User: What shape does this take?
Amino acid sequence: MVGRLLQLSRAARFRLWAVVTAARLRRLGGRLVLEVDEVPRLLGLPTVEIDGYPGTLTLRIGREVKLGSGLVIDLAHGKDGTIDLGDRVVFQNGVRLQPWGGAIRLGVAAQIRDRCELKSAGELVLGERAICGRNVTLHCEERLELGAKVGLAERVTVIDSDHGFDGSDTFFMDQPVRSTPVLVGANSFVSTNGVVLRGSVIGENSVVAAGAVVNGGTYPPQSILGGIPARVLKSLADGAHAAT
Assistant: This one.
């Protein structure tokens, strides 16, 4: 009986949040499209931050999704955004989602741990059971994909774009943005403080060492990558082992 009452209360709180959010967006010329298979488990209701006049926010939520406290959905001026959460997705606390004209798509049972930031102007995709450790940053301008069962340890950064810098007096933010898709293959692991930059394609079942910087390029499956810039140190296919 108590469980049923809690479930009804949770559903009522979420419906009220949806009504209020939709009304806020409408007042600013935007729109909320909400598709919910099952009301998520809530440690707190999401905060929607709106910059200027938003477009359409499409929010899809699967079954048994958990939303931690302090979740922020940050909407950019004049841009549509999509957040697509598969079944059993888990957000811990303090996560920030920025669908700035793009989509953020999380596969079944993906986990986003405390204080992560996911920003997308393109297609940011996490596969089934992918895990982002605490304070991970994912920035997508074009396409950033983490395959199924990929693990990112604490403070990892993955980004598919950068600003050019030509040595002139032009402010770096005013210089052209360059983007090249990034792919981290299935069942790979990026260790603490690892950085994966635009144009990087890491084969499946690979490991990136702590503090390594993968500065573009294609790397074969079962690689152990390390260094700045990263290179293949060993191949797991040859019987090497790595600790994660």
